[in-house]
Amino acid sequence: MDVHVHVKNSGVAVVTLIHPPVNALHPKLLAMLFRKIEQLHANEKVRAIVLRGKGSTFSAGFDVSNFQQDQKKGNGRKNGPTVDAGNVQKEIEDTLENGKAPVVALVEGTALGGGLELAMACAARVAVKGAKLGLPELQLGILPGFGGTQRMPRLAGLDTAIEAMLTSKPLTCQESHGVGLVDKVCKDEQEALQMAEELAIQIANGKAARCSALYRNDRLPPIQEALRILDAARKMPVARMPHAQLCLDAIETGLLHGAREGLKKESLVFSQARSLPIHHALVHFFFAQRGTKKLTLMANKETPTLQQYHPKNIQVVGVIGGGLMGAGIATSLVVTGIKVLLKEVNDQALQAGMKRVHANIESMKRKVSNQEHARASLEAAKQNLVGVQDFKMFKDCDMVIEAVIENLELKQAIFADFEKACRQDCILATNTSTIDLQLIGKKCSTSTRKRILGAHFFSPAQIMKLLEIVKTQETDGQYVQDTIALSAKIKKVPIVVGNCTGFAVNRVFFPYTMAGCLLVDMGLDPYMVDKAIAGFGMPMGPFRLADLVGIDIGLHVGKNFVDSFPERVYVSTLLQRMHESGRLGEKSGKGFYKYDLKLSSRKALPDVAGLTETLQRSRKDSGIPEQKMKTLKLSPEVIVEMIFFPIVNEACRVISEGIVDKPGDIDAASVLAMGFPPYRGGLIWWADHEKGSKYIHKRLEELASEFPVQSGFFKPCEYLRTCAERGRDIGTGLHVGPKL
Q1: One Pfam family name from the record (predicted)?
Q2: How many domains does the chain have?
Q3: Claim to verify: residue 619 and residue 574 sit in the same structural domain
């Protein structure tokens, strides 16, 4: 960590932030920066300053590890800010904005959060083509605290600034130039440095205007219009969180009372946001995502930890099956430069699979319609896809992924073909979500079984960020590490899990639909259940999800868990009754909801009349006393507990058995794969910090007593009981494993 200064004969001092890999703004780095720029202002030989970052990044923002250190000290419940935003604001204003020598920011790569706030305080900004600029602080439950709420509206306009802050979406270099956030755009770093030095000297000589963003008002609309824009912003879904409202409060104060009062308000509400539970939850989730690659358990009892393996570069991957999942996996690979051999059984199926991949890429291109380079790169990615109908070319594969239907015999036959066609160092992967990997590889040789692992993508694979890497007791750690490296290349978050029914994610969440069915069998309206769960923050409740997945698929997957864990499942006939009546979900136009198949959006509409008979039959099958159904009245909070506490209970089993490497992996996976609200930190964080192990254990015991027929479904596991008795958080980990 350092700040390097080079004073040139021209009188320009080039100041470089050095804090690899992304020049994060640690408080010590900021202190060094301000001190050295003060010294430059006092140096008579220095006429102007250029501020840049070392490497290909200006600065990715404030060093978030400081927030994590605070959480470790206060256990995520009581913290003070790691840095005084008010003091930093003053230093920025004194050194970058109002110092003797004008400062020009040279932005290459990214200028995010505090990095952009530094750049906006400079007299001008020169960017290298491809740079991205943004204020993503709301993703961490805070808001810009170094003047961003005041400077960005005055540089880029109020509408642009509000959208950038509320969505956390960075602006491209071209967009930034178009709205006035960037003054000059250059093709490369060398040209940008020359331009920045020339512009800095011109400003120093009075030949170019020296603009202070705090005192600009020309980009702001008239006050009444500005207030209308703010009022509309407050009603947006992305602004419903308290820290987003605090951000808008700071902007509003600056509009009404001037930028200086706005800075004071920003400093105040920044501190308020730092004390909110949502901030601690989002910081935890941020690091949970980044911590999944850091494995703490042993790969096997006889082998070294996975970090000791040197991963190989996977360049060619064979994908078996061009259906929705196979095409999605192939898309994820080709767009990141990996050659894919897509195999199907005949030409018709192959052409359909190729078309799906191309359609996925075209969809990606539409999302970057104003980014010429990105569109060209995606178009070129189509050349990485090669269609085949046999295994002749699979000798070139570094990895193969089977993505066919959940049929054990078919998968075993494919792995027998893999064993014959692939090199002896080729990774043999299956995308199964339910079948035991040892059964899939049962007919393979011992040496081959060392190369077998699960590469479980979530649908749609080209969009969902999680990759569940499943290892058996026989899987060699080298191939696991190779797959972890691949996940980074294709921009996925990996979690390494043990081999069991449902692995980690699907196993933990198998009670989701079962609990919903129990509530409906008890007499609740399925739409009331979905509404309560959506109100909790899930993208959809169990019944809307069942429609999306398909009732037939739900039945098939559910049977695996009934067979594997018969002592702790709730077996309802509801899905079977739905299947018998032809209500298969969204794909058939009717399930728990009804859909217009002619519309691409397929809006889900309640179908009370259509469901009545099916619900009555399932309730009669359940054996739950009718009197209990009539008297049952549950609040949304109780519905949430009855849905999620069995899920937490199963997560406790997964932790204790060592199926996951650490509890934080469940938090990352629950958000990325199942849509658990990130502002709650993930399933385990929510359980610990909003409920507590003692309360969850007590409620599950009460539910087991209240519903004795379903008592096994609610019975607390040993791990949860131990946490409750010892007063420990579930997330502290009490591993019985490891199984990994």
Answers
A1: ECH_1
A2: 3
A3: yes
Which pLDDT band, with edges at 50, 70 and 90, does 686 fall under? very high
In a domain, 292, yes or no: no
In the chain, % of residues over pLDDT 70: 94
* Catalytic residue check, 197: no
Cα separations in angstroms, 57 against 51, 148, 207, 402, 519: 12, 19, 29, 38, 52
Please determine, for residue 651, whether its predicted confidence score (pLDDT) is greater than 50: yes
SS (H, E, C) 471-499: ECCCCCHHHHHHHHHHHHHCCCEEEEEEC
Residues 494, 531 share a domain: no
Identify the DSSP state of 10. Answer: T
Indicate which residue of 91, 108, 137, 468 is catalytic. 137
Q: What is the CATH number of the domain that holds 46?
A: 3.90.226.10
Global pTM?
0.91
Choose the weakest-confidence range: 372-381, 638-647, 650-659.
Answer: 372-381
User: Helices (DSSP H) in 42-127: which residue ranges?
Assistant: 65-74, 85-92, 114-120
Spell out the residues 6+ positions from residue 685 whose beta carbon is closer than 8 angstroms to its own: 76, 281, 284, 285, 288, 667, 731
Q: Which of 93, 117, 468, 586 is catalytic?
A: 117
Q: For 506-518, what is the mean pLDDT?
A: 95
Domain boundary among 448, 476, 499: 499
Count of C-beta atoms within a 10 Å radius of residue 225: 11
Residues 213 and 335 in one domain: no
Neighbours of 211 (CB within 10 A): 18
| 116 and 44 part of one domain | yes
Q: State the number of CA atoms in the 13 A half-sphere of 206 facing the CB.
A: 0
Question: Taking the CB of residue 624, how many other CB atoms lie within 10 A of it?
Answer: 18
Query: What pLDDT does 197 receive?
Result: 97
In angstroms, the CA 453 to CA 470 distance is 6
Q: Which domain holds residue 163?
A: 2-275
How far is 622 from 624, CA to CA, in rounded Å? 5
Cα–Cα distance measured from residue 420 to residue 431, given in angstroms and rounded to the nearest whole number: 20
pLDDT of residue 168 exceeding 50: yes
Domain identity same for 495 and 511: no
